[in-house]
Every structure is written in C-alpha cells, then in structure tokens.
Amino acid sequence: DGSCDPFVKLQLGKQTFSSKVITKTLNPKWRESFEFKYFSTSPSKLQASIWDFEMGYDNHNFIGDTEIDLDELEPNKPLKYIFTLDGMNTKVSFLLKILKFAELGAAELQLQKEISSAETNSLADQFSIANTGNELSCVGYMIVKVLRATNIPGKKLGNVDPYVVLEVENCRAVSPVREGCLEPEWNLTYRFPINDYHSVLYLSLFDEEDLVNDVLIGRVAVPLFNCHGIKRYTLKDATLSDVGKGELWVELAVFYNPLRAAIRTFKPKEEIIIKQPAKFDVSLLQRDVKRITTQIEKLQDMGEGLDQVLRWRSKPTSLVSMIMFILIVHYIEFWMLPLAISTLLFTIWLSQRLGLKAKESWVRNNLNKPYYEAHKANTDGESSGFSAKLDKMKAIFTTAEGIQKGLDFAASIGEKFGHIGQWKVPLISAMCTIILFVASILLYHVSLRYVILVWGLNKFRKFYLKPNLVDNNELVDLLSRVPSFPEIEQYRQIRNRQRREAGGEASGDTKNKDNKSKKNE
User: Fold this and answer.
1) Is the confidence at residue 410, as pLDDT, over 80?
2) Which residue from 14, 197, 300, 501 has the highest number of Cβ atoms inside 10 Å of its Cβ?
3) What is the DSSP letter of 13?
C-alpha cells in the first residue's frame, strides 16, 4: 500500500532494546534514546536492524541491518552514524555516544546514593587547570541528587504516581515511580559527563498512567553554571513559560575545566536528537514580532538622538559631541576598539561584584497557583476529502514556520550581544573580556594587514589539506551558547510570593506591636 510500520531493534551482547512502532509512514522519526551498559569486557559490535511491524504475527518483515564498531568512537564525543540499506534508497541515522564516567569504581559508583567527599575531591582534581591536557574531550562532570517533591496536587480520580526524568545534552535518566504519593522521596544520585558547559539540565516531574500517556506535572530548566548546592525549584508548565504544579528538591554539583569549556565554546553545539522539533504557534509568532520590534525601536531611538545632535537642537550637547568626534577620529587607533569593549565588560563585572549594579538573579516573582490539568492525547489525522486544502495549509504553515524562525534568529542576535555585556553568562563574558584585551595588545604590536594576511593564508591552508572540510564560524558558535530572552525566562526560577507576603505581614505586625508598646510607655 506504499507505506509500512517500521521499528528498530538494537542489540549489544545480551542487552536488547526495541523502538516504538511508527505506523503508516516511509519517513519515520523515532527520537528515542537507549542506554547500554558498556564495559571493557563487553562486545564491541552494536547490532542495529529495522523491521516492518505486522499486527497479529510473531515474525515481522525484515527490512535491513547494520553493525557498528564501538571501538571507533571517542568517549564523551557524539557521532552521527548513517547507513544505507543494501539495494535500497533507504537511510537510517543514529547518534551514538559513549559516556565515560569518573574513575572511581565504574558501575559501583552509579549505585551510590550519597555524594562523598572522596568523589568530589577526585573530580575537582581531575578537572583542575593543571590537568587540562589529560582529556580534552571531557569538559566536565555533573552530579544530581534527586531528593523529594512537595506540594503535588491530588487528582479527583485515582492516585498520583510521580517519577522524575533528568535530561542533559543527549543523556537521559528516569527515577523509580513512587506509587500513590503526593510527597515522594527518592534520595537517588545520578551522574552525567558534560560535553558542553553551556548545556541545560531539564528536570521533569511526571504522573504515571496505565491506559493513557503519562501526565506532565511540571518541569524546570537549569543552566549548568547555576547547578550548585541544594535547590528547591517551583516547577513550570510544559512550555517553561508559566507556573506549573509542585516543587522539586535536588542537590546539584558541577565540576568543569575552564580552559576546556572555553575551547569547546567555539565548536558547534551537540545536536539534541530526543528534543521534539518546534511547531508553528501564533502566540510565538506574536512574541517574536514584538521582540524584533523592540530591537528596531531601540535603533530608531539611537538614530533620532544622533539626528538631534546633528541638527543642533541643544547647542551645548552638539558642541561637546563635535569636539569629541574630532578628538576620537584624530587620535583613535584600531587596537583601541577591542580594548574599549574589553574595559567596558570588565567595568560591568566589577560593578556587579562590588554591588554597584544588580546581577542577573535568574528568579522572577509569581503567584504559586497549583492546578491539575487532564491529559489530552495529541492525535494527528487527515481527511482524504480535503487533501488539496490540507496540502495548501501545510505549505502556509511551512512558510509561517520559516518566518517564525527568521524572526527568532534576528531578535536573538541583538539580545545575545546585550546579554554578553550584562554578564548573564559569566564564563562567556569573561572569555570575551580576555580575548578582546589580548586582541588589543596584538593589534597594538602587529599591523592589521598582517593579521588579515595570516587569517587568509590559514583559510587556504585548511582547505588545501582538507578539501571537504566543513568550516564553522566561531562567533556564531559562541553566540549559540548565550541564552536569548525567552531562554532566560525559561531558566529563571520562581519565588513563592505567598511566603514572602506572609513574612512581610509578620514583620508588619511586629512593628505595630512595638509602636503600641512605645505609646503605652
């Protein structure tokens, strides 16, 4: 009938996994992850096969298979593996990654419930600057201890069976289910090697269901540079834009090497395959239009201010501006530009350290509104009688998605440069400060023409040695690590306003009592 119901089988030794069945399609997308226990004594060949599911039959139709040699993979470095089925124009792609854990006991380490001082000391030494050259592929290591969940609302029918899903980069871990519990405790520790210090940890609290898909209670996104100590997170909704249900208590610790993290920042980000692709949303389109409009209005304000100076609307201001323009144009050298920007970044950082300027708190106030929404399964269907109209609608949505992505990209560029100047990602701002300072010294001693010459010859050299080299833009790779405004809103945690207001009322009552006692005296 021109379609099939494909699924994939994966086998490593005695370990076997099967993907879900994608019905009636020739272009399936599974976006699933499977974790194998791989030791030095384990088989090195991963068997992968694709099958066509047949309802009611034990033997499914075999489509093709391949064998992947795991010895060719570097630890903690993802590899996108694509193979073509023999005699067919069919390609299947996998993303493989071998996670190398800290050398503290391999499998036994993963079973520990406590974060020991011996482990933290060993990790701190392993990722110290003195040991930078030992393992350049491994940027860092994260330990997450899931403690408990609180304030989970009950359901009208049935019990709540909560469990936690932890996701960072392409690593995923799932906690055990605590059946019929509104105040579950886990006290379980999970460990993840880190390939990029600018990654984000996603913590999701689910309610397990038997007959329908599991219900998301709430989730939270935490950048790795904010992962430290014992935290209580007020969970958000599925879009990470509004308050969700319940609170999650975790203990976080991240160990990383600053030099490796800085080098990794100028390389392409790892593709997250288990993340669902974004779909067109009218509200998101309106948000992005508002963001780009804000950026344009700022440029217009700057242009209007410059126009006011040039037209001598305020003669003292215009006179001072003209004198400054003459001095700058006459005496400025090119090496002064990166020095000025580096000095500006350093000044902002120093003012934040001294308390003269507020730092990014990553917390926004909101009223805690617990609620419980019934799960609605998403069903996709097409009516054969309106195929032409459906095709037209698909084309419209595809165009709208492209516009949405373009608006998001344009708005994000201006926001990200602003966030670097505001030190919202301290490591990147510190890197820019140092790089610009070093660039100013280099440009002071070396003529710009020689720098451009070396840069051009290096480009010729790279493509001469590797004709098929896919070049990357280091500036774009660096900006991809800086969160945009919507991402910052997702990462920003929620402070419980009710508790703060209760504390304010209590302090107010105390002041009233003190005033009454003074009057009586």
Assistant:
1) yes
2) 197
3) T
Contact 162, 152 (CB under 8 A): yes
Task: Measure the CA–CA gap between 443 and 437, rounded to whole angstroms.
Answer: 10
Residue 21 burial (CB count, 10 A): 17
Tally of CB atoms within 10 A around 93: 10
Give the three-class secondary structure for 347.
Answer: helix
Q: What is the 3-state secondary structure (H, E, C) of 93-148?
A: EEEECECCCCCCCCHHHHCCCCCCHHHHHHHHHHCCHHHCCCCCCCCEEEEEEEEE
Q: Over the stretch 413-422, which tens digit does the pLDDT of each residue have?
A: 989 999 999 9
Rounded distance between C-alpha atoms, residue 480 and residue 362, angstroms: 19
Of 330-344, 359-373, 497-511, which has the strongest mean pLDDT?
Answer: 330-344
3-state secondary structure 446-483: CCHHHHHHHHHHHHHHHHHHCCCCCCCCHHHHHHCCCC
Tell me the average pLDDT of the chain: 79
Residue 429 and residue 208: Cα distance in Å, rounded?
42
Q: Is 60 exceeded by the pLDDT of residue 490?
A: yes
Query: Any idea what DSSP says for residue 182?
Result: S
Give the residue among 422, 435, 439 at the shortest CA–CA distance from 478: 435
**Contacts with 199 (C-beta within 8 Å, 6 or more apart), sequence order:** 168, 169, 223, 224, 270
CA torsion sign for 102, 105, 111, 112 is negative
Residue-wise pLDDT for 237-252, tens only, equals 888 888 888 899 999 9
Give the integer Cα–Cα distance in Å for 173 and 166: 5
pLDDT given at position 370: 39
Residue 283: its H or E element: helix 282-310
